[in-house]
Amino acid sequence: MPTTYRPLVASDVEAIATIHREACLTAYAFMGWNYSWRECRDWYEGKLPDWDWGLVALADGEAAGFAAGMGTHLDQLFVHPLHQRKGIGSSLLRAALARTPPAETLHVYAENAIARRLYERFGFQEAGPVPDGGPHLELLYRRHLA
């Protein structure tokens, strides 16, 4: 069954918390990331009102990834590890860039080389550190069009 996409809605909070937690356990292993599912869900319940757009990727009818943001800032893009390397992250990023207005900025940890390569393939470049990014270097990426 092909991957389909639909707008993110409030009832997706449990699914995106699961995606976020499972993806971060791998992607953020360098920082010892280990928040509980409940902590992720509670954080997303508080975060959801901040976003003015969001998209969920469905594989076999189940949420496999999501992207969300506000205005031109891509705030979140995560794909569940069981669905990574299948083009879902690229499709979500493509959709964020096709919006009006398109995504132009995002934050990524310097140690997250896989995510940085994805963003760089789509024209994002490092634009400096995020102020108060914490103990791990968090970078601002900005999209530069040729």
Structural overview:
This protein has helices at about 15-25, 35-45, 90-100, 115-120, and strands at about 5, 55-60, 60-70, 75-80, 105-110, 125-130, 140-145. By secondary structure, the chain is α+β, with helices and mostly antiparallel strands. The chain is built from four helices and seven strands. Strands 1-2-3-4-5-7-6 form a seven-stranded mixed beta sheet, sandwiched between helices.
Q: Main sheet: which strands, in order across?
A: 1-2-3-4-5-7-6
Q: What does the main sheet amount to?
A: 7 strands, mixed
Proportion of helical residues: 25-40%
> How many E strands?
7
Identify low-pLDDT runs: none
Q: In sequence order, what are the helices and strands, one letter per element?
A: EHHEEEHEHEE
Name the average pLDDT.
94
- Gyration radius from CA atoms, angstroms: 14 Å
- The number of helical elements comes to 4
Q: Tell me the β content.
A: 25-35%
Question: Which structural class fits the helix and strand makeup?
Answer: alpha+beta
N- to C-terminal distance: 36 Å
**Structural shape:** globular
Characteristics of this structure?
single chain; 146 residues; alpha+beta; 7-stranded mixed beta sheet; 4 helices; 7 strands; globular
A few lines on this structure:
The protein is α+β, with helices and mostly antiparallel strands. 32% of the residues lie in helices and 30% in strands.
Task: Summarize the topology.
Layout: E1 4-7, H1 13-27, H2 37-47, E2 53-59, E3 62-70, E4 73-79, H3 88-98, E5 105-109, H4 113-121, E6 124-129, E7 138-143
Parallel strand pairs: 4-5
Antiparallel strand pairs: 1-2, 2-3, 3-4, 5-7, 6-7
